[in-house]
Amino acid sequence: MSDTVAVIGASGVLGRATVPRLLEAGHQVRALVRSAAQAVRLRALGAVPVAGDILDPHSLAPLLAGCSAALHLATAIPKSRDPAAWATNDRIRREGTTNLIAACAAAGARRYVQQSIAMLQGGQGEAWADEAVTPVANRYSQSALDMEGLVQASGLDWLILRGGMFYGPGTGLDAGWRQAAREGTLRVPGDGNAFISLIEVSDMAAATVSALVAPPRSLVAVVDDEPARYRALFGHVAAVEGMPAPAGGGPDLWPSFRVTNRAAKALLGWRPHYRSFRSGIV
Questions:
Q1: What does the alpha-carbon distance between residue 53 and residue 91 come to, in Å, rounded to a whole number?
Q2: Strand runs labelled E in 142-247
């Protein structure tokens, strides 16, 4: 391949896993960076860094010039549950997406891949939730739903990838669970019966690369094969650390989301390497 792909969020959790896979697949990569350190790292990998910010629309034209596709992988997820701490992430999803869509249209970059979240398919209880369910949003996810609407209203050849909860290298999620298990502070949310749909970050990166050649105008949930009840998931984490099963009564983080990956397998020709937390957290 000789096409050039613009990556926004190349230094983030998903971007760090995606850029090397794009290069290995033969794509040329142009990466938006906000610091010299990011530029040095990405240049060493073989990407071409371009200084800019998704919230600065004037900086996006040099990034996208000559590109056939753009990947919007940028997020700014805070650790705090304080809604005020989510303002930057909300701006990236709304204002940043608006800026990037306009820049793609101006540059003639037709293929557009948007990272989103499978939590929007939550609230279905025991039922499996596919992409046809009515999205459920809260204060932390409403901007993701707004972002999807902006993408779907664009004239681009878009794909929206609703990723499950990321775990694996660089995410901090499973590392935090493991540390809490060792310290005896891990708590199962509620009674432990709610579902969480996970995706190991390298599997999400593989799906992102596959999306560049998948049928356009598709909304796809990218999750592993086995949505987990929190009781089983946290019990496994504790067992891996040689600790007893954690008690219940912890805070409920998201509405239960038991999401199917059938569409991802069919449309992307993709299969997760880590089929469940049982092989991904060891």
A1: 12
A2: 157-163, 165-167, 195-196, 198-200, 218-222, 228-229
- Tell me how far apart the alpha carbons of residues 163 and 256 are, in angstroms, rounded to a whole number: 15
- DSSP characters for 48-76? EEEE--TT-GGGHHHHHTT-SEEEE----
What is the distance, to the nearest Å, from the Cα of residue 190 to the centroid of all Cα atoms in its chain?
Answer: 25
Contacts 24+ apart (CB under 8 A), 252-256: 252/189, 252/190, 252/194, 253/189, 254/119, 254/122, 254/196, 255/119, 255/122, 255/123, 255/136, 255/138, 255/194, 256/122, 256/123, 256/124, 256/125, 256/193, 256/194, 256/195, 256/196
Per-residue pLDDT of 38-56, as tens digits, reads 999 999 999 999 999 999 9
pLDDT tens, position by position, 228-243: 999 999 999 999 999 9
- Prediction pTM value: 0.96
